[in-house]
């Protein structure tokens, strides 16, 4: 049974990583395609490559991330907890993709694991140690703080960019901004791989430790390759529903503001991953930076109704995923 559960967790983790790349590709490609800085094909290929490189680089940060969050019980219970969390976060991610709403895969995964832990405690099994603190520090606080910080910085960063371009012809500004957007899109994709590569790698490592296949602190090379390849493969498919929401429905920005928003978003992802060892949501950070940069214009560029729907989806993610995680754990608990 241990081998069966471990295989199920790895297969579901592969699905999660693929969907992560598929859905979050929009953060790297939406504005580049919208402002015609890159063609859709080139944008997706570039994002896939740098997503893969970021995921490979994230192996150096995975141990710090795993030690900071929680501890999963060993044996069947630990594997069932991980399986329930992965299934819940995948289903919620597919639903929000179908609606065209960008959302955080990280928040969905951690919230689902919190719900599975709650279900485990209710029926007398071991919960996930430290998940309550993790839910507060890595889900609820970032949900409130990171979009606000990204919005304010995105709004403010337009001023020095506009000042620097004040004596330059608009067509030249747009051309240079489109060139910069190519770099910015790659930076966002690398930051996404650096951040979200840690999640899938950590889940697979937790599963291998729970099954007794490896010791704590070991990181097999195949796990890193597994995560990077699936993130890149998911990115290749583009997730165009969400890209259309970010590039067309949510906000209208010119190439300069688009490049500012993406560079700022990438910078925050790097600071979160390398400087703070904190899992920031690529979707929340980049979306809020885009809205902030778009708000710094003389005309109304943001669709308030779409923005409200996205904000409600972000707020609903922890609540729904906690419930789904608990339900799936209870459904799978006979396997324990």
Description:
By secondary structure, the chain is an all-alpha fold. It is built from twelve helices and no strands. Helix 1 packs across helix 2, helix 1 packs antiparallel against helix 7 and helix 6 runs parallel beside helix 11. It is elongated, with a radius of gyration of 20 Å. The chain starts with a helix and ends with a helix.
What structural keywords apply?
336 residues
Distance between the termini: 9 Å
Order of helices and strands: HHHHHHHHHHHH
- Tell the overall outline: elongated
Q: Count the strands?
A: 0
Rg, Cα atoms, Å:
20 Å
Helix content: over 70%
Structure summary:
By secondary structure, the chain is an all-alpha fold. It has helices spanning 2-34, 40-57, 59-69, 76-99, 105-122, 131-164, 170-210, 221-236, 240-250, 255-275, 282-295, 304-332. Helix 4 (76-99) runs antiparallel to helix 7 and helix 7 (170-210) crosses helix 8.
SSE layout and pairings?
Layout: H1 2-34, H2 40-57, H3 59-69, H4 76-99, H5 105-122, H6 131-164, H7 170-210, H8 221-236, H9 240-250, H10 255-275, H11 282-295, H12 304-332
Helix pairs in contact: 1-2, 1-4, 1-7, 1-8, 1-9, 1-10, 2-7, 2-8, 3-7, 4-5, 4-7, 4-12, 5-6, 5-12, 6-10, 6-11, 7-8, 7-10, 10-11
């Amino acid at each position: 049974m241990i081998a069966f559960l471990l295989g199920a967790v790895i297969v579901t983790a592969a699905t999660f990583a693929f969907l992560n790349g598929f859905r979050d590709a929009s953060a790297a490609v939406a504005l580049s395609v919208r402002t015609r800085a890159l063609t859709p094909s080139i944008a997706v290929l570039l994002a896939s490559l740098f997503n893969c490189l970021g995921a490979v680089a994230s192996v150096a940060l995975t141990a710090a991330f795993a030690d900071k969050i929680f501890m999963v019980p060993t044996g069947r219970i630990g594997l069932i907890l991980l399986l329930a969390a992965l299934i819940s976060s995948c289903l919620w991610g597919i639903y929000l993709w179908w609606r065209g709403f960008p959302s955080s895969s990280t928040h969905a995964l951690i919230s689902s694991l919190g719900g599975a832990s709650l279900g485990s405690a209710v029926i007398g099994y071991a919960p996930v140690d430290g998940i309550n603190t993790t839910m507060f520090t890595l889900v609820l606080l970032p949900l409130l703080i990171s979009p606000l910080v990204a919005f304010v910085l995105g709004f403010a960063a337009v001023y020095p960019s506009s000042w620097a371009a004040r004596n330059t012809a608009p067509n030249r500004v747009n051309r240079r901004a489109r060139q910069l957007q190519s770099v910015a899109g790659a930076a966002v994709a690398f930051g996404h791989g650096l951040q979200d590569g840690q999640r899938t790698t950590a889940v697979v490592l937790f599963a291998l430790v729970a099954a007794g296949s490896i010791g704590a602190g070991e990181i097999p090379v195949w796990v890193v390759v597994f995560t990077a390849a699936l993130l890149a493969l998911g990115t290749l498919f583009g997730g165009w529903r969400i890209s259309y929401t970010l590039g067309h429905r949510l906000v209208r920005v010119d190439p300069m503001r688009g490049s500012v928003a993406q560079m700022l978003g990438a910078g925050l992802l790097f600071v979160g991953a390398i400087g703070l060892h904190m899992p920031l949501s690529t979707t929340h950070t980049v979306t809020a930076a885009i809205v902030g940069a778009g708000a710094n214009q003389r005309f109304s560029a943001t669709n308030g109704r779409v923005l409200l729907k996205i904000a409600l989806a972000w707020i609903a993610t922890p609540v729904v995923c906690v419930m789904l995680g608990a339900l799936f754990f209870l459904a799978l608990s006979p396997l324990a």
